[in-house]
Amino acid sequence: GEPTANQPLVGHKGLVRYHIKTTGVTAHASMPEQGDNAIHKIANVVRQLTHFDFGVVPHPLMGLPTLNVGTITGGLNINSVPDEAEIGIDIRTIPGQTAESIQKQLQGALGNEVDVTNIASENSVLTDSRNEWVQQVYEVMETRLGRRPEPATAVYFTDGSVMKPAYGDPPTVILGPGEPKCAHKTDEYCSIENLAMVTDAYLEIMCRWCMSS
Fold it and tell me: What's the pTM?
């Protein structure tokens, strides 16, 4: 049910999130030389992360991992040197990357004065597009889309990462009527035409799955 514009996808990137914290020494704003500004330090961290190189080869379907600085906090008031600052980062991973290996990369690049804490981690999902059931899903959608779907994956994360191992690692396809480019944006929408198409497709896909079980 994730937004794929009715294109069946055979996987998605993984997810790891970290809090990165810097510390300093507080002082009155009129005497900044007596303090150690933690916000200056976290600003330097953000700059270093802007074009962070994970040192990995692009995955044939998922491409390269991505990194986003999503939150930033620091300081108690405007007239004092902040002694603490923190950012939250979101990384979408490709197969072969782990939370532990990425944390080592971040710590090594940012230095020991920066505290890197992992707060979330979920694996990527990938099903071989040659799988028999995936090919059946392609057949179902081909009659509705007017063309044979090509193997592709989602750039975002889904519940498939949790559900796939919980149900014994079945072949997994991500398929839904929403527009992926509109996700988490103002006026996110789903067309009635796509909704009707995928509702009918879901029924046929479920019937085929039950008949093959």
Answer: 0.89
